[in-house]
User: Fold this.
Amino acid sequence: MLFPTATFAIFFMVVLPVSWLLMPRGERWRPFIVAASFVFYSAWDWRFVLLLAASIVWNQLFGHAIHSRERPRDRKLLLAGAVAGNLALLGYFKYVGFFVASTNNLFAWLGVDVPLEARSVVLPVGISFFTFMGISYVVDVYRRDFEPVGLGTFAAYLSFFPHLVAGPIVRPGELIPQFGSPRDPRYVDTSRAFFLIGTGLFMKVVISNHLASSIVDDVFGAPNRHSSLDVLVGIYAYAVQIYADFFGYTNIAIGIALLLGFQFPQNFDAPYTATSIRDFWRRWHMTLSRWLRDYVYIPLGGNRGGRLFTSRNLLLTMLIGGLWHGAGWTFVAWGGIHGLALVAERWWRDRPGYVEKPATAWSLAWKRIATFHVVCFAWIFFRSESFADAWDLIVRLFTAWGEPTELVTGGVLLAIAIGIGSQYLPTRVPLSLMTRFSRLPVPAQAVVLSVALLGVHALGPEGVAPFIYFQF
Amino acid sequence: MADDERERRTRRPRGRVGEGGRRLHSAGSAIVVSTLALVLSALLNAPGLHKSATIQPEGWKRNLALAFTEPLESASEALFLDRPRRGLKAAIGRSDDDDIDTGVAAPEQPPATEVPAEPLPPPRREAFSPKKQLRLWIAGDSLVVVPGQSLLRAIGSSPVIEPVGEIDGRIASGLERPDVFNWFERTREVMREERPRAVVLMLGANDDHDFMTGLPEGTELDGFASPTWTAEYRRRVAAIMDSVTRGGAYLVWIGLPITRDPEQTARFDTINSIVQTEAEKRPGRASYLDTYFYFAGTDGGYAQYISDDSGALVKMRADDGVHFERAAGDRIAREVLKQLYQRHDLTSWRRATG
Assistant:
């Protein structure tokens, strides 16, 4: 059930009033929202619901078991069991084919025949997201940052449909306390919610889909058929497409949760205005960055060792982050490029005698342009299906200048300009729009929203492509 | 605590403000605004919603959607609320987006005779060169996209093959439902305007259902693979093949692959056999490329990972168990190119230019 569809609109218009009606009585609201979330998830495949339910039960059992033990060794063993279970689930559904094929090919390269069979497994939507949330729950309980809650509350946390299939990755401490007390129906931030949903739909349906069908798919599909300018703009277009797609989805998710009375953490903060790769990761998929920092980088030792040790941890964290996005070596390469860039930045900053110079407009512009291009370079590997494809694209980028350009149109350039330009808008602009909207009478608000929906529906291509991050 | 609860129940909402001074509203207001906005936007987008409902797969959901959108569209027209959408569509050059076209345009058939007509003899093998390029159109449903991209990459900067635009891949389309996308019209249009001399098609993956639109008057279908269904589907395949071959192009029709779902594979076999027999009626003009065994595992069944030519185990099929990964596209593209090179002379110009 995709957000920008009539089916979801009908589903949500049933869930929204019922949720508010049941809100004062948590013992009724929780089963309702879990059931609604299961219905939402079963729209892809009802069997996925069994998997989600199994994940809920598994993490809940281990959460309570860890909490009830005092001996550190017992707690650690139980935590290891809980995390191993989550990773086994993820590994089986997402990585088994990839690892078997890689192992086979490695041994074949060494001249050893290992007849392993790469099984065909259906990848359940959003498994990476709810698995990571399950891990964060048991780890937080282990660290005594969080006490386990009842099954109903935990089930509501893990399955809550606004974040279920593509995040944001919400930590237990951010959402579960909100489930503990009824939301006040008198004060809902509706104008922010509608603004987020409207901009999210526009970015996904109009900008992302337009760029995908107008240039990105063609350039990445057969780069050797296109000029260097087409390829260059195609890479920029993909950078905007993936941002618009994921930012759009996240905005809709946050807006929907807000209408239900719940706050989700921010997931994007104008990432293409970043002045370094470290800055980029503070702005891009922020909930994943936090997750990787708190559950991978810090447990690995973080920056508590020397420069080499810290560099190793940074690189490992980003490689794992890359692999999380997809079962392929190109994703690992994407993570590796970001990891190396982070390491390089750290070494540059930590060199003897380095003093941060005061920022000027020119230095900021230069840093932003350089960061954006490093990010775009990494996107080439993220989008390409193989290293050979990525290499073809990079070669074409430098060898076909002067050939006729077919894909760079006014519409493509406008969509790229909107995707990047919107990140440079001062925050007062959306705030002012939301404030004005909030002061309109109810019928006028409805008219404004319906006109926005008209624009999105009419300007978007026919049909709605799935969100890119669903596959992760 | 009890006082707080009483106050909560009885007091009218105070004008509390959020960040930036924006006014917070009640949940009731959120529900009313959402409902009104959806109703109004449904009226404004009624032509598009009606088309979306029409092109859904047959079933109760489609019937329900039609029962809702047909009166909605009438009301929208009566209130002139469809005008902004039509204006917007016209402004971006997509006026016909909301049109529902169910016509099955088939080339006129020669008059029937008592003796079955012999197939036309194969046309002569034509030579192409950089001065006389082989124009190639690649089209079909979503399955054609990956092999099409592989084909374009394989052609590379070949001076002798000139693709007609990008890959014409239309998601969820097929021959059963011209209302979703009218391939009959599209084929005629491309043959007329672009004059390709080679066409690579892959269609049928969305056609394994009981329901068709654009049926001739009085025709009723008895369900997928029934004699009536088969006759009508055969007519449609023949119409596409005739449009292409009579337009002077050589057609390579890529057969549907084995899929993870054995029942779906069996349905695809039915479609493949129709396409194959129709292609055989047009020797030298149309060919059918059987892909089944390219993607079968060692046990003859579906496999997601298959060894490539170098012996490496590679992912051939997408996670949905139907679509292709790049390696699979490359394999199909090689076979398509082989057929094009067999059918046409695409290399002698090299010797001539020496």
